Amino acid sequence: MTTTSALSHYHDWLRDAHAMEKQAETMLEQMAKRLENYPQLRARIEQHIEETRQQQSLLESILDRHGISHSSVKDVMGKMAAMGQAFGGTFAEDEVVKGAISGYVFENAEIGSYTSLISAATRAGDQESVAILKQICEQEIAMADWMLTHMPELTDQFLLRSEDPDAKAKR
Fold first, then answer.
1. Helices marked H in the chain — which ranges?
2. Any coiled-coil ranges, and where (predicted)?
3. Could you report the per-residue pLDDT of 51-64, keeping only the tens digit for each?
4. Greater model confidence, 79 or 154
5. 147 versus 77: which is more confidently predicted?
6. Residues 137 and 107: beta-carbon distance below 8 Å
7. Angle CA(84)–CA(88)–CA(89) in degrees, nearest 5?
8. Closest CA to 87 of 31, 158, 147, 48
9. Which pLDDT score is estimated for 170?
10. What are the distances in angstroms from CA 43 to CA 38, 48, 129, 153?
11. With contact defined as beta carbons under 8 Å apart, do 91 and 145 qualify?
């Protein structure tokens, strides 16, 4: 049996997840635009941007099915936070490495969020959403795993480029 309080939290967390995906889309788009010398990372980020857009659509279908309005305030705040993160990184000499680390951390925050949402959906008896949330969580796990696996290679590429006075290492 689901309490009104548990259902209310579940609905709030669904809104939060939607805003989080909006933030992720903005952050990833800004990062991909600036990656000139790291084609493998850029390609994986572009793939994840498409996954993120699909995730937003899936979340919107859950919100709509439950009659939950999207939180445009949370969406806007998330996008503003992502723009701030992206803008701040443009001045860092080691932007690509710091961006990859931040991306890895963000992916893990998403994994935590979806793990909680799966439990909340189960408690709410929303089995249809459980399957969707698990699918999204698996995509976030795959992205986090990819980032972690490729972090040493990316770091090595950056360090090699930074030793060349004629190369632009940060992007």
1. 4-34, 39-65, 72-89, 95-123, 127-163
2. none
3. 999 999 999 999 99
4. 154
5. 147
6. no
7. 120
8. 31
9. 53
10. 9, 9, 29, 15
11. no
